[in-house]
Amino acid sequence: MAILPHPRQIQMAVVDWLDQRFPFTQSVDEALYQRVPNFANAFYYCFGGMVFVLIVLQLVTGVLLAIYYVPDAAGNPAPAYTSVQTTIMKDVSLGWLIRGVHFWGANLLVVMIVVHMARVFWTGSYRAPRELNWMVGVVLLLVVLFFSLTGYLLPWDTKAYWATSVTLQVMRGAPVVGGLIASILQGSSTLGPQTLQRFFDIHVFILPALVLLFMYIHFRLIRRHGISEPL
């Protein structure tokens, strides 16, 4: 009778196979094991980690919602509206909970990013040589705010329609490029199916790619310079 290898032996064999082709163990050690300074035990140093957890939660719930969401504004009622109010909220098991977590998580994410940046400013962590990471954080805040803007239209109800219409009108008042950006987002002479499709594409494809890219840069810079001491 053949003796099956111990699971630990299988695990080590897989790790050895990966290490021969990619610095797997080294990468895991760099990502998971780093000495945290004693001053970083203060509760307000956890705000950045809370932002990270909320972003991951938004990405996961967003993927689940996108499975059932239909970005189509043609018809009355529009499939976009029906997919949210009927399919997600009523037909899908726990769909109402996933949408609620996504909605309130988006609001809490904006708050926590502002709180995190206030902590960084208060402790002087934005100063050299970390000013580039501060700029990356500002860009991440803008990306998250744009997430909120594009996501607000997706339910395609009356409140979302008119709120987005007002937002685009305000955007047109911005100097130089405001009108151009508003026209690109709207997609046509009126706010309609093309607008919804563009908002969906930006919300689901472009912005997640940007937030993952800038989060990677943000974490690499933290690794490079370490956690700053408070003033």
Distinctive features:
single chain, 231 residues, mainly alpha, Cytochrome Bc1 Complex, Chain C, 0% strand
Structure explained in plain terms:
This protein is mainly α and 231 residues long. It has one domain (44-225): Cytochrome Bc1 Complex, Chain C. It is 71% helix and 0% strand. The protein contains 9 helices and no strands. Helix 3 packs antiparallel against helix 5 (95-122), helix 4 (79-91) packs across helix 5 (95-122) and helix 7 (158-172) packs antiparallel against helix 8. The longest helix is centred in the last third of the chain and has 33 residues, at 193-225. The mean pLDDT is 93.
The gist of it:
The chain has nine helices and no strands. With 231 residues, it is mainly alpha-helical.
Overall number of strands: 0
Beta-strand share of residues = under 5%
Characterize the biggest β-sheet: none
- Fraction of residues in H or I helices: over 70%
- Indicate the radius of gyration in whole angstroms: 22 Å
By CATH reckoning, the class would read Mainly Alpha
The ordered string of helix (H) and strand (E) elements is HHHHHHHHH
How far the N terminus sits from the C terminus, by CA atoms, comes to 68 Å
What is the arithmetic mean of pLDDT? Answer: 93
Look at the helices and sheets and give the structural class: mainly alpha
Q: What do we call the CATH homologous superfamily?
A: Cytochrome Bc1 Complex, Chain C
| Uncertain parts | none
Question: How many helical stretches?
Answer: 9
Instruction: Indicate the overall shape.
Output: globular
**Which fold does the CATH topology refer to?**
Cytochrome Bc1 Complex, Chain C
CATH architecture: Up-down Bundle
